[in-house]
Amino acid sequence: MPHAYRAYPPGKPDYTALDLPPAPAHRPYILVNMVASLDGKVAVEGRERGLGSPTDQRLMRELRVNADVILNGAGTLRASGTSSRIDAEELQAIRRERGKPPSPTAAVISRSGDLPLDRRFFTAHDEFDAVLYLATSAPDDRRAALVATGRPVIDVPPHDTLPSALRHMRHELGADVLLVEGGPTLNGALLQANALDELFLTVGPLIVGGTHGLTAIETSTTPTVDGLTRMELIHAIPNPETGEVYLRYRHRP
Ligand SMILES: NC(=O)c1ccc[n+]([C@@H]2O[C@H](COP(=O)([O-])OP(=O)(O)OC[C@H]3O[C@@H](n4cnc5c(N)ncnc54)[C@H](OP(=O)(O)O)[C@@H]3O)[C@@H](O)[C@H]2O)c1
Predict the structure, then answer these.
(1) Distance of CA 137 from the midpoint of ligand 1 (Å)
(2) How many angstroms does the Cα of residue 250 sit away from the middle of ligand 1?
(3) Which of 66, 93, 190, 236 has the fewest CB atoms within 10 Å around its CB?
(4) Assessment of whether the complete model's pTM goes beyond 0.85
């Protein structure tokens, strides 16, 4: 077994204090968190709702304790709304003890700028900070509407959206740890940019079925055996109460 593997007793792990390597100079250290069904699907009826148990939701909040920024793709904002709230006093207290604000900064990345302005991401100014990374190719009228929400809109070049956003987080926001909460297209872009350091995947005891369906990581390229990305298992923790398994894998390029 590789040396990073740690054995845990079955049940719920504690994700409030992760032992993470230092961030590289040009981007934060990047964790991706997703929940999937037994047949590998991450959405049903167009949303992730119904796939994870309350324990999985709690683990999502515990992971947020470690993060300086929470990033979502625009598709997830459109489908479900996104926020970086932690919603648990004891978890916020851990962040305060570490000298961090109660909630991480929420971030969304988009090329189109076609975003629902009535979502909390744009309206809940008193609950959490948020930044939008928007390609400079987005139409001017959409950009103006987004700027009018009062959330900072950070221009990123269309040919280099994600690396530019990650550099901004590291250098301008001072982020050491970025937690990405999907969706699959953004996760795929991270993988292709060699910027997916760890994957936290909850596998639930459900089968979604269907003939299509999003999986945790979607790329537009055709996969090849030679191009497979190998991940190193850190832990696999079964929870007999929920029927879920909590997986943590690290990418060692
Ligand atoms: N099970 C889970 O844990 C989980 C978690 C999250 C989401 N989901 C599900 O995933 C589905 C959404 O999937 P999705 O793949 O569309 O979601 P997504 O990755 O959140 O959104 C894709 C969109 O994000 C923007 N984007 C992504 N990568 C970008 C990049 N490198 N540069 C600039 N913009 C970028 C683009 O926005 P524009 O189109 O605006 O240009 C793109 O169309 C929903 O059903 C949601 O419920 C599941």
Answers:
(1) 18
(2) 22
(3) 93
(4) yes
Residue 238 tokens read as 């079964």
Give start and end residues of each alpha helix (H) in the chain: 54-65, 74-80, 89-97, 120-123, 140-147, 161-171, 184-192
* Ligand 1 centroid distance, CA of 2 (Å): 32
User: What's the mean pLDDT in 17-34?
Assistant: 97
Q: What is the pLDDT of residues 131-156, one digit of tens each?
A: 999 999 999 999 999 999 999 999 99
Under the banding of pLDDT at 50, 70 and 90, the label for residue 3 is: low
Instruction: Pick the closest to residue 78 from 33, 114, 32 (CA basis).
Output: 114
Among left, alpha and beta (phi > 0; psi -120 to 50; other), residue 188 is: alpha
> How many Cβ atoms are within 10 Å of 152's Cβ, its own excluded?
15
φ/ψ (deg, to 5) at 45: 55, 35
